[in-house]
Amino acid sequence: MNTELIDAIDALLPQTQCTKCGYTGCRPYAAAVAQGEADINQCPPGGAAGIRKLARLLDRAEKPLNAANGTETPRAAALIDESRCIGCMLCIQACPVDAIVGAAKRMHTVLTQYCTGCDLCLPPCPVDCIDMLELDALAKRGNLHAEALATQSIEDMADIARERFTIHQFRLARELEERSQRLARKARDKLAHLERLPGGHDRERKIAAVQAAIERARARRAGSG
């Protein structure tokens, strides 16, 4: 795998992490392009300018954006109608750059300055309280972050989004590991409790089941490492 080429392609992508390209994020798409598994015209947020940059980098012919991946639209950011928000946290879980903040059963709000406009928060919202608004429209509503974001270069926005996405991924991995450790501790405590019980077929069956669960968890951790 040509890491340098993947890095170069990834550096030209907008880092919205929107998955419209058909991949789970900008870097997987960059890897697919580098390996000839994806074309250069699958990124709607990058649009014609992004295709042009990729074509120059890879010495390929420019082509129109693939309509199957979407259409090029003005830069936008999410806006939550806080009066309708029920605090379900599904949008927070969906945001790839942690640009939505809030607590369970409390209203959420969007940190406009970090929103990439990926619109991944829209589908999981059960009350349709999120809209995607163009940055100019948000600025006219008095959103100073939208006004600043509208003047920010695509490159600067991408650098910030890439950093936040990386932190987001590290956070998810840490939370997964912490959860795994909690479950492992509970399993060990359960095993120790069972081993203190009087002998019998049911006891042995339960011990074997817990031991098997512990071994499966160890195998999963080894595989993910």
How is this fold's topology laid out?
Elements: H1 3-12, H2 26-34, H3 47-58, E1 76-80, H4 90-94, E2 100-101, E3 109-110, E4 130-134, H5 135-140, H6 144-150, H7 154-196, H8 201-224
Antiparallel strand pairs: 1-4, 2-3
Helix pairs in contact: 1-2, 7-8
Give short descriptive properties of this protein:
225 residues; two-stranded antiparallel sheet; two-stranded antiparallel ribbon; 4 strands
- The helix/strand order is HHHEHEEEHHHH
* Average of pLDDT: 89
Largest sheet: 2 strands, antiparallel
Calculate Rg over CA atoms. Answer: 23 Å
Can you count the helices?
8
Derived structural class = mainly alpha
User: What gross morphology would you assign?
Assistant: flat
- The proportion of residues in beta strands is 5-15%
Strands of the largest sheet, in order across it? 1-4
Oligomer: single chain
Distance between the termini: 20 Å
State the share of residues found in helices, binned by percent: 40-55%
Q: What is the total tally of β strands?
A: 4
Q: Low-confidence stretches at least 5 residues in length (pLDDT < 50)? A: none
